[in-house]
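S., here's the first fold you wanted:
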Amino acid sequence: VQLVESGGGLVHPGGSLILSCATSASTFGYFGMFWYCHAPGNEREWVSTISAAGNCTNYDNSVKGRFTISRDNIKSTGYLQMNDLKPEDTAVYYCNWLQYWGQGTQVTVSS
């Protein structure tokens, strides 16, 4: 099983990005998925969680109200919509599903 991420990049403060995490796993919709971030000098940190059906979500306080996690179980893809980005959001973002991890996508917020 592979998780393939896309959507990172360089944005100005206040900008938006949407990250995608695609897999071919036929059982994707049976389990929750997670997003983490890893900034230089820090440990990998949890960002958000979505339940298998997508009807329950949780967020770290630092992103609550700015980020939205979602999923499309038909497409076996998860998303992280990131709005009002701040320089402190700069990190490599990873999706996680069961024991599988995406390759990471760099998000850089800078003026």
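And the second, which I think is the more interesting of the pair:
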Amino acid sequence: QVQLVESGGGLAQPGGSLRLSCAASGFPFEDYVMRWYRQVPGRERELVAGISYSLIATYYVDGVKGRFTISRDNAKNTVDLHMNSLKPEDTAMYYCNAVPHYWGQGIQVTVSS
């Protein structure tokens, strides 16, 4: 059974930090490109960051470059999103994705004072 389980979300103050983690099981994790997406109500889901199988290549949407870092541990089947210098506009539901097929249930991140 394929599972992607996100954790680490919650409330943060502007300028603060959060680390999201996604634990994968039920498929060959090391063979999949992994991505984080986010979505706010009424808007399309947005790609935030991605990381290749071998950890060499990473991608970030312009609005998070320099603030967010994606990482993965193929031995532990986890992919993390380290979020620093958080802004209110980072508030969204964040989703882990094993490209293209598998999705987590999502986890809420709220940035507010």
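Why I say that: The longest strand covers residues 18-25. The chain has a mean pLDDT of 96.

Talk tomorrow,
H.
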